[in-house]
Amino acid sequence: MTQVKAKKFLGQHFLKDLGVAQRIAASLALDRPSRVLEVGPGMGVLTQYLQRNPLIQLTCVELDRESVSYLHHHMPDVHVIEADFLRLDLHELYGDGPFCVIGNYPYNISSQIFFKVLDYRDQIPVCAGMIQREVAERLAARPGTKQYGILSVLLQAYYDIEYLFTVGAEVFEPMPKVQSAVIRLTRNSTRQIGCDGQLFRTVVKTAFNQRRKTMRNSLAPLVGKGDPLLDSPVFSLRPEQLDVQQFVDLTNTIDQHISRSITR
Fold first, then answer.
1. What is the pTM of this model?
2. CA-based, 20 to 30 A from 162: which of 12, 189, 222, 225?
């Protein structure tokens, strides 16, 4: 079977450097037998190294039918599911048990992939893979930097994030217009962040959606325009100035304020 043609609408850029593929596979850093889900295996350049690891029980999920056929032909022993990862019910696939996630992720859905990882955070101890360098920098960014944003806060609440190494465009076919990077997310010890999780997401997203404004302006719709609570010092800050714990504290402040307002 001939090679798969990359499809722009799927954001496909096939990795061709075997050394980089080996390094990505090793980025899971497993020390015990684990179930691993590879997202978007394409022609299996990364898959072959995952398959060879005796600690890995591998499943691949691939949306592109041509790639699925290629994998069935060239790697018949690999379990491949033809599906959209973003729509896949991972509880149906893994029950309540743990599994790791890895991939050379399509750039056009990488943020959505990490939001899904968040939804399954208590089952995913490690998530690793390659994404656009700009996105990797954003995930690992620290407070006070221009890269620090929504996913930085939400992911760092539950994961320790490591920017592992940068990958040039020349290792792909076709070459992307940007550089890539490999990252690793390792679940931290936080099980409950200490506030309402849904409101936490809302506060973080609302604040960063107008990141150039102070939170007095961006969060006014949640608190109530002109409300005295907005005079608190924290609301004079911009969102990138707050770390995860400060966002947790802010969420609790808003939650308590809303509850009091309702009971009045």
1. 0.93
2. 12
